[in-house]
């Protein structure tokens, strides 16, 4: 009997997959390759099914850093809000007010003078310079090592860190010195930076202060602020 060649459609295999015979226009993929291509791909977007994916570790670390930055910024904002408006001082006399125009040192040695000059700096959005100078003066009077370390860290976070809204303007050399000294802080860790900010206020802000309405009103009015 002559064999009859079956030329009809190939029945579907178990599981609903069609067998592939020979080459095809789709690139000649075999059934085995098709099944392999359907395996889950553990890529960086598999947040729900790939707990061991290294991208999850990167993402978690990034979120941790963001939380730290938010906590640091909140702490800085709190300290900024609790900063005293002025130093305790007595009302300056007319003679004291006149002496402030003779030298910047006389102005900075007088608590009332510092308060009024700080008010002027606030109008120029540079009050952080005076706050930094005062914080350095406070640090230099401290003798307790633990408190020195705490205050030095606070000064660094408030006025040196680039993340702080109260960052003062320092050159790269001074910043390098601070980064080295702050590892083992002393009462004089920020002395060089303090001098640079003092010089900046003297040369930049002090001349404008003497010609400002704030100082002229005091000079001509003959009395200081409360």
Describe the structure.
The protein has 226 residues and is mainly α. It has a domain at 96-221: Regulator of G-protein Signalling 4, domain 2 (Orthogonal Bundle). 57% of the residues lie in helices and 0% in strands. It is built from 10 helices and no strands.
TL;DR of this structure?
The protein has a domain at 96-221: Orthogonal Bundle (Regulator of G-protein Signalling 4, domain 2). It contains ten helices and no strands. The chain has helices at residues 31-37, 54-81, 94-99, 104-109, 111-123, 127-140, 145-160, 172-181, 191-210, 213-221.
Note the total helix count: 10
Number of strands: 0
Order of helices and strands: HHHHHHHHHH
CATH topology tier name of the domain at 96-221 = Regulator of G-protein Signalling 4, domain 2
Q: Which strand-content bin applies to the residues?
A: under 5%
Query: Strand count, sense and closure of the main sheet?
Result: none
CATH secondary-structure class of the domain at 96-221: Mainly Alpha
Search tags:
226 residues, mainly alpha, Regulator of G-protein Signalling 4, domain 2, 10 helices, 57% helix, 0% strand, elongated
SSE arrangement:
Blueprint: H1 31-37, H2 54-81, H3 94-99, H4 104-109, H5 111-123, H6 127-140, H7 145-160, H8 172-181, H9 191-210, H10 213-221
